[in-house]
Amino acid sequence: TPINDRFSIRASYFPASASTDIRLDDSTGVAGTPFSAEDDFGLKDKLNQVRVEVLLRILERHRLRVDYFNLRRNGDAVLARDIAFGDQTFAAADEVRNTIDWKTLNFTYLYSLVHRQRFELGAGAGLTLFQGEMRARVPARLVREDRSGSVAYPTFAIDGTLRIAKRFSINARANYLSGTIDGSSGKINDYHADFQYRWKRNLALGVGYSKLKTKLHIAA
């Protein structure tokens, strides 16, 4: 069961729904135009995603979880309004070709407050690394804007497993943060829950639900 695993790799495939609201200020700090990457820039809001997670049980009650997530999308849209994006202003009727690449890498340490044969409950702390890159261009006017940024935030974590039968288990985890560091503020809600069937000794299958909501203001 997951309670006894010393090492595991989990790959999750899911048809995801994405909603992305962006404001990119210019290099002097003047506020840009808030816009929707899906509605204004034509990025897909439905897409297939994969998330990879590695779990290492160091001692009976000590675990380290590492997981990686990447969301990269390309869009092509004719703007319905003017949008100030970084140091450029894209005008209504401009055809904007754009790319948004978003990566997160999480390191989470967990200590099992309860560790029994059928139930485990752990709590701990994590470090989440974010990297974002945005590119937009209007080929007809030879106008483009490229911007990238990265930030790291600590998170609080909780993790639980309930073994309901010999081969069946329910698993859930959450990472959470709301705070400000060096002028950059962030709010992170990362939730996952699944139902697993241990088909073979070293292979499990399951279905679950994941939600990742991130709000970041990265100070230049």
Question: What's the helix count?
Answer: 0
- Would you count the extended β strands for me? 13
Terminus-to-terminus distance: 46 Å
Structural class: mainly beta
Helix-strand pattern: EEEEEEEEEEEEE
Q: So what's the overall shape?
A: elongated
Adjacency order of strands in the biggest sheet: 1-4-5-8-9-10-11-12-13
- Average pLDDT taken over every residue: 90
Radius of gyration (CA) equals: 21 Å
Topology:
Blueprint (H helix, E strand, L loop, with lengths): L6 E11 L3 E2 L12 E2 L9 E14 L2 E17 L4 E3 L2 E3 L4 E21 L3 E20 L4 E21 L4 E14 L2 E17 L2 E15 L3
Antiparallel strand pairs: 1-4, 2-3, 4-5, 5-8, 6-7, 8-9, 9-10, 10-11, 11-12, 12-13
Notes on the structure:
- The protein is an all-beta fold.
- Helices cover 0% and strands 73% of the residues.
- The chain contains no helices and 13 strands.
- 20% of the residues are buried.
Outline:
By secondary structure, the protein is mainly β.
